[in-house]
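Because showing beats explaining, we let one protein speak, sequence and backbone structure tokens together, and leave readers to judge.
___
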Amino acid sequence: MRDADVDTLWGNDMTEFLKIEKDGHILRVTLNRPERRNALSTPICHGLIDLPAQVEADMDIRCVVITGAGEGFCSGADLKERKEGDETARWDYVELVDRALLDIEKIPVPVISAVNGHALGGGTELALSCDIRLAVKHAEFGLTETGIGIIPTGSIVRLLRDGYDALNSLLTYTAGRFSAAQMLEMGFIQQVADDVPQLMDRTDVLARQIAQNAPLALRAAKKVKRTLAIGKTAEAMESAEAIRRTLDGTADCLEGLAAFAEKRDPIFTGR
């Protein structure tokens, strides 16, 4: 169980959309937008982007835990924000989400995702950006982007980079939803809990096990992983981004986003 003396200065920084608590050597980050299923708003993205530098500067932190408030983990990009503004504004938002998810990998200590509910689209990618993934059994995962006329570039690159070729094909091409049990069987997550309290307890045990180890060694091990991962990711992301841009503004993309907002099935025409 968690200690009672949770630090309230570093971060127990309760912003409107992101809650950060330092608990001993563990930093707990909670996406705090339950009414929107913790969709990645601009403020949340900026908060996630700030995390690597904050953790880098605080040598007392040895492990980070990311979870969601309410019943969901993260529903991915906020499609309302993605639709707003002109083309430049839309792409600024898309690039902000991409950067936030990429920067999770730059956190210099081990990161655990405690997936307390559905993790769809960018929510699956957020979990993928973490080093270790635990989930509650009712959680669902999925890269749903092709179902609304876009593609999950960051997820495709990471899944292929990390050796999940078959899983990438299954998630990306079907745009389907997959249970925690299925994702455990496919190696994407490491533990499944019966309920959220058990999930948080197991996450806490694992985080404390990590945090008892030598801090310099933990950071060195993470640096090796980051160096290899970032080197493989940058060029692939650039190519994938160029491909994704060809879909923006197509009839299918506009139809997919409209159908999602209107809660109906899209009618794609291949244009």
